[in-house]
What we know:
- It contains nine helices and eight strands.
- By secondary structure, the chain is of the alpha+beta class.
- It folds into two domains: 1-171, Jelly Rolls, CATH 2.60.120; 174-285, Arc Repressor Mutant, subunit A.
- The radius of gyration is 20 Å and the shape is globular.
- Residues 179-277 form the HTH araC/xylS-type domain.
- This is AraC family transcriptional regulator.
Amino acid sequence: MPQKDRHKNRQVEIEFHAQEHLTDLPYNRRYSLILLTQGSFKAKLNNYPITVNFPSVICLKSGDDFEVLNQQNISASTFSFDPTFLNTVRLSQSKDLNVPNTPRIKEGLSLFENDLQHIGLIELDTEIYSKFLQWFFTLGMEVSAQSDDLWVCRIKQYLIQIFNLLKQLKDDGQNSAIDQALKYIHINYASPIRSEDLTQLTHLNRVSLNEQFKKRLNQTALQYLMSYRLNIAEQMLTHTGMSLNDIALATGFEYDTYFMKQFKQKNGISPTEYRNLSREIAVAQ
DNA sequence: GCACTATCTTTGGTTGAGCC
DNA sequence: GGCTCAACCAAAGATAGTGC
C-alpha cells in the first residue's frame, strides 16, 4: 500500500517491508531494492539461475519473472517504489499528474535493466553491507515516522546515495590499490577524507597514488573525490528540496560556503541557479 | 536564517633529485 | 622503472562578514 503523506495530504508511491519473505516479489507497478540480511537462496530471474548469498542487494521490477527455488534461514528488507517516484516535479506543476520530461534521478532505473552483463544481483562486502544496513534502517524509520514535511526529500536523498553506490559496485570489480581507494571514496565520501587516508589505505605515497589515479581516471585522488561529491550534490539539488547546508553536509563538505565555491567553480553557476535551471531544462525538453 | 563573497591559513599537487 | 623525499606554489579549507 502506498504511503499517505500526513504533512501534505498526498499519496507517496513507496513501501518499506522490514521482514521480506520473497513470496510476493516482484510487487505490481513497483521497483524493489531487496537487502538480504541473513541466509542464502537459489532463484530464477527471467529464466536465469542465480544464487544469492548474504550480504547482497537484488534489484527487481514489476514484470520480472522471479521464482525462489530454495532458501536457507533468509532474512531481508525491501524498499519498493513506483518509477514515477524518481521524477522531480516543480512546485508550480505539483498538481499536474502528467507532466512530461520531468527530471529523474540519474542512476535509478538503469540498475533494474536485466541483461547478460547484469542480472539484478549485486554482492556486497561487510564494509559496504554495514552502510546499506544503516541506509535501509533509516529508510524504514523515515517511512514509518514521517517526522516532518521533508521526509520524502530525505528518502530521495538516501535513494540517490544508494543508487550511486550500487552503480559503482556494478561497474567495478577489480582489487588494485586504486580500486581500494575508489571503494573507500564511494563509501565514505560523506565524511572528511584526507589524502593521508588514501595513502595509508593503498600503501602508496602521495605522488604514486596520484600518478595511478591520473593514469586510470585522468584526475588526482582528491579531484576525483571532489567531482564525485559534486555529482551527488547536483542530483540532490535537482531531486530534493534540501537546503544547501544540508546538501553540503550530506556530501562531505564541512562548510556550505566551501561547497558553493566548488560548485560554482565546476559549473559556472551557483547551486540555487543550477537547481532552478536543471528543472527548467528537463521540463522544456 | 539562508545564500553568497572576501580573506587568511592549511593542505595538497607538481617537479626535480636521488635511492633501490 | 618504480618509488621516496623535499621544496615551492596553487588550491582547498576555515572563518568572518554582507545582503536579502
